Every structure is written in C-alpha cells, then in structure tokens.
Amino acid sequence: MSSSEPSSSEIFTEHRPLLFTIVYEILGSKADTEDVLQDSYIRWSQVDPTEVDNPRAYLARIASRLALNNLRTAQRRREDYPGNWLPEPIQTASDVSDDAVLAESVSIAMLLVLETLSPDERAVFVLHTVFGYTFPEVADMVGKTDVAVRQIAHRAKAHVQARRRRFQPESRTATEIVEKFFAAATSGDIQGLMDLMSPDVVEISDGGGHVSAARRPVLGPERVARFVLGIARGELAEPTFELTTCNAQPAMLVRSRGALEFVLLFDIVDNVIQGLYAVLNPEKLATAHLSNPLARERD
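RE: above sequence
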C-alpha cells in the first residue's frame, strides 16, 4: 500500500457512522453494536483494502451479517428480560431530524416495532427500507436468495405498517412541550401534565431488574401523570435535569449528585405527548451521555 492510499483503519473510521447506524437499528443496543463493530474491524483488518473494489459495501456486508447473528442470540435473551425491554438510548445531533427516514428509524417507537419482527425480517427491513439497498444487495448481505429476501421484505413491511405510530422528529415546539412538562412535574401540577398528553399516551419503564421500575406499561393521561409525579417526588439527592436529544427525539437526562439515574425520552406528535420512555437500567446508561454520529447515505 502506498503512502497516498488510506489505511484499513482510516477506511473503517470513514464508514463507521454508517456501520454504527445499520447495526444499531438491527440490534437496538449500543453495547452490542460496539461489539459487532469491533468484530467487523478485526475481520476488515485481515483484508488487503487495495483488493476490495467497494470498501463501504464490503464493510456493510460484514457488519450486517455479524449483527444478524448477534440479534438471533439477543432475542432469546430478551424473552427472559425482567419487565419491559427498551432500546439502549443514544444521544443524536439535532441535524439527524433533517433526514425524516433516519430520524424515525432510530426513534424508540420504531425500534420497539422492529423488536416484534423476526431477526431476518428486521435485518431485511432495515437494509432495504431504511438504507435503500436493492434486493440483490440485501440477499448478499444476509446470505439468502433474492426471492427469499423479497418475500421477507413484503412480510416485514406489512408488519411494520400495521404497528407503526405517527412520528415527528425533534423540533423547537417539541422542546417547549418538554419544558412545560418539566415545570408541571416539578410543581406537582397534575392537570398541567395531563393537558400535555394525548388520550392514548403510554409510559414504559425499563429497570432491567437492577432498579425499581414499573414492570408493565402505564396507560392514559391521569395514570401517566400520577406516575410522573411519583418519580418527581422521589428521593434523588441533589437532582439535576438536562434537556437533550436522544434517538432523534426530545429527552431528559436525570442525574443525582452528578450520576446519571435515568433517561426519559418523549414521543411527541401533533403537539401532544403520546409516549414516554424511561430507561433506568444502569447497564444501558453507561454511555447515554455521549453523542453518536449517524449516517444513512451509502454512496
């Protein structure tokens, strides 16, 4: 390799945002995504990059296959998960919302819908519908025939369309609603909280069996509002609250004496809160404060 040609490491780093996004959407776990990317890099480092016509496609194929294998194992683990399972939240830049397809695809609501697919359906849906790979390309990436991939894609698309909720990416209006939510929660204004919620609002908590958390979804404005007030009146020492953007939607990082206690994500559509997702599992909070570059373009 000449000094003017990029090294294997430089090539991998260049394409890492795309690889991270693909794998995270297939897995819904940042920790597992990082493991897959590490394995992908090890395999890539054993290849002479000058002999690869399209490194981006080559890397995407490696990462996708490893992610699919990982997902098959992860889904079996999640069947025994204590309480509700939520995707691991990731901080995202505000410009992610400029790409509506990307923003929806990493939202908590969509990732939960993808959890109801089989591993093959999820991988095919993500690669074809979100990232625009052709059926022959997807077939090569997941190790199946073109015909099989088309059938899988049809089933997955119908499944997702039947279950997906309307999505609106993070916006200035949404941020203002979160600020009103915070003011009402900290002042004990239950009616103020209820006024910000849709009639079918749902709250889902994920404690992972490590911390106390509601083990079933909380439904309806009054129940959700009372649940929120219970959290607000909790015994956090020296609490601080930071508004941010996670998974392309408004979020709040809640800390106690500087330690991150949980992440609260808001699903806001038509200026009302239709979903609240509280991630309290400490195993999912270790890197929740770090920003993650995402990418969907593959050319």
